[in-house]
Amino acid sequence: MLYKYMLAENLKHKHSILKKLILILPLVTVLLSFVLMQSYFTINAFNWWYAMIMPVTFALIPSLMHRKEDKKLKYRAIYSLPVSLTKVWIAKVLTALLYIVVAALVHLCAVYILQFAVGKQLTSSYVFPTLFSASVLLVITYLWQIPFCFFLVKKLGFIVGVASNVIIGLGLGVVFADSSLWMLCPYTWGIRLMIPILKVLPNGLPVTANHPLIENTSILIPVISSVVLFGLITMITAKWFSRIEVK
Question: What is the value of pTM for the model shown?
Fold first, then answer.
């Protein structure tokens, strides 16, 4: 039954700027790295993606989905229908997740293909399983932001909601990713995991396999924590959404 809600949600954004951004954001990131720094193409294409563009993507997609619903009718169309508001909210979250997975796949494929066009780099090229693992881990460790961003923009408005998550994400994510407190800040999880997976520091510098940050980074704990946090935030915000009265 939930997939019907997701189909309806997806139809709302047919031919919208949202679906164009799913392709534009990852491709622009990859192309910038290809044009500006081919000697470090793969490292930069991923580092710029998860440190700067991915937080923007995770904020924009839920926010634009909310804006579509809120712009004219202020959700009155939904509240007037005989539907489960909890399922409506969960469908929005899962649809946004699907869009983000597509964006991550576009980024992954573009990086892998352009590696062959770049040729030999000053840093080693990565095999597909490594790049795929990095992309999967990034989506998993960032996915808790989807329901959180929906809540922010619903509560604070489009501009404030997007700006809040992007600024906090860009600030805390990079600052605390290489500190001993990284596990306490969800915004750092994806960035920190790229150190053992891609051998890249948050600032984009490559590291050797015996670097202390590689040895002191757990992959399993932040992955499980992110999935649990995603579930908790989704359930709590879905219950909150179902109790809102249309003004």
Answer: 0.89
